[in-house]
Amino acid sequence: MNETLYTRSGSEALEMMRQAPQLFESYHEGFRQQTRDWPVQPVDVAASWLSGLPSDLVVADFGCGDAKLMRTVKQKVLSFDLVANAPGVTACNMADLPLADASVDVSVFSLALMGTDYGAFLEEAARVTRRGGWLWIAEVRSRFGGGGVEKKEDFRPFLSCLAQLGFRLTKQDASNRMFVTWILKKDSDIGQKGGLRWPKLKACVYKRR
Ligand code: SAH
């Protein structure tokens, strides 16, 4: 099931979930089990970063899962996932959010870049995030071609696409063994939708500690 979401587009995944919502439950149970043993959860890192930002910001949580972020932070969080699995979650494909242009201050992707068209999710984030706002991403390291200590991941093609959307990297943290986090600032609205060559990311293998 995990594999399935990584090998389909967002709209295919949404269609699948509509037809068989129980798939979502089993996927989520798997996700929870696999990440439970991680010493640090990305969503908690996001929450801790948000605790240092003003409380009147509006945050969009892309692929929110059980919407822990919304329950944890002081800011208003708009939560989106394929299935509304918790109160307050809007069910949709995150390539196509029911939000106006430049309507949020912060977009968050915590392990949410699933799907062959993940770039469309980030382009959507560029649309809904106001200039001067933030993009926060956590993603599994091995998806970027890393193969243990001897083989380093290459994040540059990915970050270069984000730069073309107007997102300037302000901080990369690769100190965690499981995932990398990036904080980017939206400096401009130059980013146009489509036409970017997003690097292919590997399907995720959740490593146990
Ligand atoms: N952010 C949460 C959950 C991560 S799991 C956390 O860190 O705990 C990734 C989530 O992205 C899953 O809940 C999955 O259903 C969702 N997802 C994957 N593709 C999606 C899409 N196209 N649109 C909306 N949500 C999607």
Brief account:
This protein is α/β, with parallel strands linked by helices. 31% of the residues lie in helices and 23% in strands.
Mean pLDDT: 91
Structural class: alpha/beta
Strand neighbour order, sheet with most strands: 3-2-1-4-5-7-6
Number of strands: 7
Low-confidence stretches: none
Can you write the helix and strand succession as a string?
Answer: HHHHEHEEEHEHEE
Please give the share of residues in helix: 25-40%
Distinct ligand kinds: S-adenosyl-L-homocysteine
Rounded Rg: 16 Å
- Percentage of residues in DSSP E strands: 15-25%
Q: What characteristic shape results from the CA principal axes?
A: globular
Measure the end-to-end span.
21 Å
Number of helices: 7
Could you give a short account of the major beta sheet? 7 strands, mixed
Question: Could you give the topology of this structure?
Answer:
Layout: H1 2-6, H2 10-19, H3 22-36, H4 42-50, E1 58-62, H5 68-72, E2 76-81, E3 89-91, E4 104-110, H6 118-128, E5 129-140, H7 156-164, E6 167-173, E7 179-186
Parallel strand pairs: 1-2, 1-4, 2-3, 4-5
Antiparallel strand pairs: 5-7, 6-7
The structure holds S-adenosyl-L-homocysteine (SAH).
Task: Label this structure with key terms.
209 residues; seven-stranded mixed sheet; 7 strands; globular; binds S-adenosyl-L-homocysteine
Question: What would you note in describing this structure?
Answer:
The protein has 209 residues and is an alpha/beta fold. Helix content is 31%, strand content 23%. The protein is built from 7 helices and 7 strands. It has helices spanning 2-6, 10-19, 22-36, 42-50, 68-72, 118-128, 156-164, and strands at 58-62, 76-81, 89-91, 104-110, 129-140, 167-173, 179-186. Strands 3-2-1-4-5-7-6 form a 7-stranded mixed beta sheet, with helices on both faces. It is globular, with a radius of gyration of 16 Å. The model has no long low-confidence stretch (mean pLDDT 91). S-adenosyl-L-homocysteine binds next to α2, α4 and β2.
